[in-house]
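Section 5.1 Outputs to date
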Amino acid sequence: MYRHKMYLKITLLAALLFLVGFTNAQPYNNDIDVVVGASVPGIYHAGIGLHYMPSTRLGVSFGSDFKNDENGRLYELALIHSIYFGKPDRKIRKKLWSLNTGISFQVKQSIHEKSTAGYLDLFFVRKFPLTPKIFIQPELGASYFLFEHLVDQAEIVTKGARTQIIPKIGISLVFKI
C-alpha cells in the first residue's frame, strides 16, 4: 500500500512539472524539433518537440527495439519536458544545455507474456550544433522505476522486482523545422 502512495506522489510531481511550464508560458514564435536516436532504457526512438517558450520544450517520442524474436518486441512512449539553461551560443543564439524530466511507458510482448512498465526520467542534454538547424544531442541521467504489470500465458498477474534507479544514457540527432 505504501508503495502505491509513493508512485502516486512521484507521478503527481512529474505532472506538476509539466503544468508549471504551461502556466508560465508566454507568447513565443514556436519552433519544432524532430528527433531520432537511441537510448537506454528508451531504445531506438523518433519524436517531435515543440518549443513553446524561449527556454522550454515539450516533446513526445515513440521507440522500439525492432526485434521480433523469442523474447518478443519492446515498445516505448515517452513524454518529455525540457528547460534550457546557460548562456546562448553566439553563432546560433540558442541555449545548448537542458534539464529534462519525463515519464516513459514500456510495453514488452512475447508469445509467453506481456509486461507494462513505467519510469520517471531525469536527465541532462547538451546540444552540439553541426549546422544552425542540425544538432547532435547526447543525454545522461537516471530513470526511476515506477511500476510493472506482468501477465504470463496462464493469465497470472505478477509484479516483478526491479532496480529502482537505472542509468539513462543516449544520443540523438535533432533537426529544427
